[in-house]
Design goal:
It holds the Pfam family cobW. This protein has 265 residues and is of the alpha/beta class. The protein is built from 8 helices and 7 strands, in the order αβαβαβαββααβαβα. The chain has a 7-stranded parallel sheet, with helices on both faces. The chain is globular, with a radius of gyration of 21 Å. The structure holds guanosine-5'-triphosphate and zinc ion (4 copies). Guanosine-5'-triphosphate binds next to α2.
């Protein structure tokens, strides 16, 4: 677990048992039933929440430092005319597969390089390397996201060519990566049709911070219960400006929309 973003820290955890009787907080029932509510309610108490306060302060400091480094990265990239796209998703939704095909299809027209993020292994970097593209792998160990310092070090190691295209494949995780600006131009979230229509509602921060959502594995739509229109509606309920593209990284159906989107960035 990662100490910086507070995952694994239980102070912010809420446990709510859904129950059937909508009430206005008067609780005039005579039985005892301890429960938590989704909505904020008063609980006047006199003890200090020292630990919570410290955690919040530390998190704010970490994020402020991250954002400063991210701005430096952004300047560094802009100075070279490098277009950086941060690609995020849950594990296995198809980020590396999409990048492999993208490099094969448009790598001839424009230089491409890749920063690969994973907790362990060089597997993804090796897959990208096999396409002939420059790549660095960032292994985060216990960490669940890339941060701006990792990005800075990766950029130094990669040294992308002026006016090239840089893909950042973030660690497979729909939660923490949303918090960390890396200095990228745009954020792309990949979800696949096997994950369920409700992902944008369950991981709203990720979708709120995105510029584009790719619904991948469209070739599997006939076999799974996934509603693209409803997913689009959910995604736009957390971020009305979201662009949505449905495609298949393996068959290539719909993929031209992705290349058109990149060309417009
Ligand atoms: N049917 C189908 N399978 C796909 C598609 N894209 C990827 N896959 C498969 O999904 C699996 C995971 O794909 P990856 O590209 O490794 O996923 P990833 O998002 O890079 O995974 P992590 O790096 O572990 O987060 C592989 O077995 C792919 O072949 C697609 O469009 N259709
Ligand atoms: Zn985490
Ligand atoms: Zn009640
Ligand atoms: Zn991958
Ligand atoms: Zn984290």
């Amino acid at each position: 677990m990662c100490a910086t973003c507070g995952c694994g820290d239980e102070t912010g955890t809420r446990i709510t048992v859904p129950h059937e009787h909508p009430h206005d907080h008067e609780h005039p029932h005579d039985h005892e039933h301890p429960h938590d509510h989704e909505h904020p309610h008063e609980h006047p108490h006199t003890h200090e929440h020292a630990t919570e306060t410290e955690t919040v302060t530390l998190e704010q400091k970490v994020l402020a430092k991250n954002d400063l480094t991210a701005e430096r990265n952004r300047g560094w990239l802009a100075g070279r005319g490098v277009l950086a796209l941060n690609v995020m998703s849950s594990p296995g939704s198809g980020k590396t597969t999409l990048l492999e095909r993208t490099i094969a299809d448009i790598g001839g027209q424009r230089r491409v390089s890749v920063v690969e993020g994973d907790q362990e292994t060089m597997l993804d970097a090796n897959r990208i390397k096999a396409t002939g593209c420059a790549v660095v792998q960032v292994n985060t160990g216990a960490g669940c996201h890339l941060d701006a310092e990792m990005m800075r070090d990766a950029l130094t190691a990669l040294d992308p060519e002026p006016n090239s295209l840089l893909f950042i494949e973030n660690v497979g995780n729909l939660v923490c990566p949303a918090l960390f600006d890396l200095g990228e131009k745009s954020r792309v979230v990949v979800i696949s049709v096997t994950e369920g229509t409700d992902k944008p509602l369950k991981y709203p921060h990720m979708f709120a911070a995105a510029n584009l959502v790719i619904v991948n594995k469209a070739d599997l739509l006939p076999y799974v219960d996934f509603d693209v229109d409803l997913c689009t509606k959910y995604a736009r309920s957390v971020n009305p400006d979201l662009q949505m593209i449905t495609l298949s990284a393996t068959t290539g159906q719909g993929i031209q929309q992705w290349y058109d989107w990149i060309a417009k960035q």
